[in-house]
Structures are given as C-alpha cells and as structure tokens.
Design brief:
This protein has four helices and eleven strands; from the N terminus they run βββααβαββββββαβ. By secondary structure, the chain is of the alpha+beta class.
Length: 187
C-alpha cells in the first residue's frame, strides 16, 4: 500500500488511483466529514483513519461522495490497482480456486446480497444474524482454507470492528455462497 499512499508531513496525504490504467495522484487534507452523531459521515474507522482518508480521496477522484456509494469491488479494484479485474458468482468457484487466486497475490473482494428488505441498516435487516455480515456491502477476502472440514472463507469488513459487526468473519464455504452474490478478483 505504501506506493499508493504518501503522508506529505504537512497534514495532507496523496493517494494514487488509476484512470484507464494511468496513475492519478489525489491529495487530501486529514480532516474528515462528521455527521450529527459525532461520527465520520461515511467510513467509520476503528483503530485509525486511513480507510476514511482513502475513501475521502476516492470521493474527490470520482467527483464526490455520492459517486462512490454502491457499486462492485471489480470496479474499485481497477481504480485502486490500474489492472483489469473480473466479477463472478461464488457458485462458479470452488474454495480451491479462490485460494489459488489469493495465493497468487490477487486482491479479492466479495459483496453480500440482500436480506429481507434488501436495504442497509434497517433495524433487523442490517445484517445476516448468523455471522453479522452487513447486507449489500463489500468485504475483502483475506483467507481461504479448502482443506478445513468444512472449507472456510474469511472476509474483512472495511469498517473494522464496529461493535455491532465484527471486522473479520470466518464462515463455511456453504455460508459464504449463501450470503455473497459476487466475488471480484483483481489482475
């Protein structure tokens, strides 16, 4: 990540994104937008502000926060790495194939589907009860163990540990396929 983020030692940070494969530096100050509940308005950092600052820079790069709400990990991976990426259904993958991609150093994300109403943060609809996965949300895939019985997948929430939802969730391969609608793999 160090080649994509630079602390300018003057209260600003420069992040590198890619447009059409070409690097685009974006510099932002360290201030974050806050809402009326004394929380950052968008990314809710736990243990540091780097993700919120990255999100701020990405919002500036794309033309504002409304332009970065929603979407797929495959699109974000292209902006973050400058390389092509692909989006597939977990039903088209095996745990072994996913582990091979992770072992090859390819960045991967997975997006959850909807639960009940399909809207994020509507009381009981905000997460899948069995493992506290946020609905309609993108996670980083951090580990795959196809040799476990049953095979497991570990994902990381970019929000970190919020108290309501954990930072890391390990689940069986069947749970992963039940809760996630898409997997994005960077090149």
């Amino acid at each position: 990540m160090s080649k994509h983020v630079r602390d300018n030692a003057n209260g600003t940070y420069t992040f590198t994104f890619y447009d059409g494969g070409q690097p685009v530096p974006v510099t932002v100050d360290g201030r974050l937008p806050y809402n009326g509940w004394d929380q950052t308005s968008f990314e809710h950092p736990a243990g540091g502000n780097w993700a919120a600052l990255y999100e701020k820079a990405f919002a500036q790069f794309r033309g504002g926060y409304p332009e970065v709400e929603g979407g797929y990990g495959s699109t974000a991976l292209q902006y973050l790495t400058g390389r092509t990426s692909a989006r597939v259904s977990p039903d088209q993958l095996t745990a072994d194939a996913l582990k091979q991609q992770l072992d090859a150093g390819r960045p991967m994300t997975a997006g959850t589907g909807s639960h009940h109403s399909g809207f994020l943060w509507l009381h009981e609809d905000q997460y899948f009860d069995d493992n506290k996965l946020v609905t309609k949300h993108e996670y980083a895939i951090t580990a795959v163990d196809p040799a476990a019985h049953p095979p497991t997948v570990t994902v990381r929430n970019p929000w970190g540990d919020t108290g309501a939802v954990p930072a890391n969730v390990t689940m069986s391969w069947d749970e992963f396929r039940a809760h996630f609608d898409e997997v994005s793999v960077g090149g």
